[in-house]
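Priority: medium. Attachment 1 of 2:
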């Protein structure tokens, strides 16, 4: 198996300004820096390698460059963050030197950089096409909340196993029966060929039904492994989330 360093990983962070609940979200100020810069810094703290912002507006690119980062402009009409990171990857690395690609969401300013390392390390197993994360649901209000995506995985948490193969993802409460439920965390690490094949493929039936693009990878027969971590990182979607992030980053 290759070591992670042999895969020459790159962290790509998609960012666009068209958020409806929090307009201009990537540039939201957190203690004198745009939120996207905080996310970039969390990614840099992982020490995995190159960090690039895949943005759709020049204002975001300018903010990242001003903070000493690297940013690539992508077509604002691209349909998803996955399309955006692949477009940026093809721009910065057309010859395929980066064999592992980590997709970190651009609204996670308080992200623990160890989570990025945990996801990326699973790619050392060449059989793993995509790696992602989950956390055990501990709040009753999340069990039946369709906005909390559940990961169904072959993992024996009671037996001390914290990593395994993901079998399905759903907005429904799944699986049934006694046992823990996993809150899926939308941070992904891809083998580069898997990302390329994923973006080149059309959305599948279940992806369209559940509105979860990771189901496309499963429909294509890709192997997704998931590691169970302690907590779900704070995603900033509203003004209240932004204020909480500011408090956490004081």
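Attachment 2 of 2:
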């Amino acid at each position: 198996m290759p070591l992670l360093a042999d895969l020459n990983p790159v962290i790509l962070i998609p960012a666009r300004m068209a958020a409806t609940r929090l307009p201009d979200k990537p540039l939201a100020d957190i203690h004198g820096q745009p939120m996207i810069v905080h996310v970039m810094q969390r990614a840099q703290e992982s020490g995995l390698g190159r960090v690039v912002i895949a943005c759709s507006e020049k204002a975001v690119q300018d903010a990242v460059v001003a903070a000493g980062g690297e940013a690539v402009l992508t077509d604002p009409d691209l349909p998803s963050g996955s399309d955006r990171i692949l477009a940026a990857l093809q721009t910065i690395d057309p010859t395929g030197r980066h064999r592992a690609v980590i997709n970190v969401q651009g609204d996670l300013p308080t992200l623990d950089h160890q989570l990025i390392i945990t996801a990326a390390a699973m790619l050392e197993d060449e059989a793993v096409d995509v790696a992602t994360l989950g956390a055990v649901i501990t709040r009753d209000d999340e069990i039946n909340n369709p906005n909390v995506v559940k990961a169904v995985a072959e993992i024996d948490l009671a037996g001390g196993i914290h990593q395994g193969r993901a079998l399905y993802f759903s907005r429904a409460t799944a699986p049934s029966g006694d046992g823990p439920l996993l809150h899926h965390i939308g941070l992904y690490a891809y083998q580069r060929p898997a990302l390329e094949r994923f973006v080149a493929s059309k959305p599948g039936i279940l992806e369209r039904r559940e509105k979860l693009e990771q189901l496309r990878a499963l429909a294509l027969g890709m192997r997704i492994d998931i590691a169970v971590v302690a907590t779900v990182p704070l995603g900033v979607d509203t003004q209240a989330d932004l204020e909480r992030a500011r408090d956490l980053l004081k």
